[in-house]
Amino acid sequence: TSPIAWLRSRFYYLLIRLYFDHEFSIEEFTRGAKQAFSVVSKLLSQRKLDLLEELVSAEVLQVLKEKISLLPDSHRDALAADIDAIMYTTEGDVRIYYDDDGRKFVSILMCFWYLNGANLPDDVPGEAKVFQIVFGDENTKEKKHLLTANYEFQREFTEGAKPDWTITRIEHPRLLE
């Protein structure tokens, strides 16, 4: 990320700690976001959308129901990310905002790069074949693809609101479009 974006994010983390959650830590948040990404991506891959109701906003869940039903099996398999297969994670945009009713919200976009062995066609644009691993002999090769996903997490910090983060945006470019 650019130095300006990095400084802006750090400023927002300071504001979150000062005004909303004195124990907020981006490192702890990132660990939780990775776990949530892994769980949600596997449930999407398995078409177990009813199990996502507590994790994902109702609007996102409705869109996912429409998109998942149209996906070919290879693309659906490529959505799943084991937590150990997440190669890189970074924060994207961080926002603090108030709605018209005075409710307070924090939103953090997380970007994930993960390896997946789904049998994707060679002509899938936007994904990258990272490497082939040879196990045993030259005839046994396993292809891995480096894929990206963006998940936005939102939490309401209004007094009396549940202290849960909810996923308000899910993007798997070239797979879930």
From TrEMBL:
GO biological process: protein insertion into mitochondrial inner membrane from matrix
One Gene Ontology cellular component annotation held by this UniProt entry: mitochondrial inner membrane
Entry's Gene Ontology molecular function annotations: ribosome binding
Coiled coil ranges: none
PANTHER family xrefs: M-AAA PROTEASE-INTERACTING PROTEIN 1, MITOCHONDRIAL (PTHR13333:SF5)
Name of the protein in its database record: MAIP1 protein
Organism encoding this protein: Rhadina sibilatrix
